[in-house]
Structure prediction request, 279 residues.
Amino acid sequence: MAEIVGAYFTSHVPAIGGAIARGDQGDPYWKPFFDGFPKVREWLNEVKPDVAITFSNDHGLNFFLDKMPTFAVGAAEQYTNADEGWGLPTYKPMQGFPELSWHIINNLVEDEFDPVSCQEMLVDHALSIPFELAWPDADAWPVRVVPIGINTVQHPLPSAKRCLALGRSVHKAVTSWQGNERIVVIGTGGLSHQLDGERAGFINKDYDAFCMDSLASDPDAMTRDSIHEIVRLAGTQGVEILNWIAARGALGPAAREIHRNYHIPISNTAAATMVLEAA
Ligand code: DHB
Ligand code: FE
Prediction:
């Protein structure tokens, strides 16, 4: 039986890639953020996943405002890294797992979700940065990937309740998968941030604490707010918390928090990292 070993959540601020490239991890600006990662790496090293099911948002690379799927599931053999213009290094490609992707897509459709299946997909900083942070010295990524994209960019966005249900449906799909892989769920983005407009730089520690406190024990609490309320509470880009909510659903019913780090700000973002284990 395949096993979901736990879930790793992190912000995906592109500037982190610049700090890694310059070797700035020990710099006073960056240290409190990077200090959150030895524990993540130690845990990954213990649980040794060989597959990652990831929840993130595309930032205009595969999907622009003209065509915006609410939910997109990658079903490619390989995912090449590219970005929408942050000047980041190009990271190594990720290997896909099309059989598991199609199993998940089939199950989502049976559960009355309507995902777009993507046999070609690029991955941007929303995956490359979390992977670089988790496996900084890897010659090749140790996991095959099923990337799931959620629209957090072009309104109307799916509700938090819908995203949690999507994640739960992915969990259900894994329970009927016949392989014996060790699967880590990854949710990226957030926490509160707003990159543009009058509230640029907006951060909301209280809402972030509410999300981090709810994640393991009461993820349904995170579905209390409408999308417009989440934008008000978390910022226009802080709505990336939807990726965390879906990932939490995919982890399974009961979870235990084993690690958390929170630091303000990295760029314009309240940067957070968490690890949960299935309980
Ligand atoms: C920043 C944060 C993001 O989530 C993103 O996708 C791009 C930029 C930032 O804080 O700079
Ligand atoms: Fe983002």
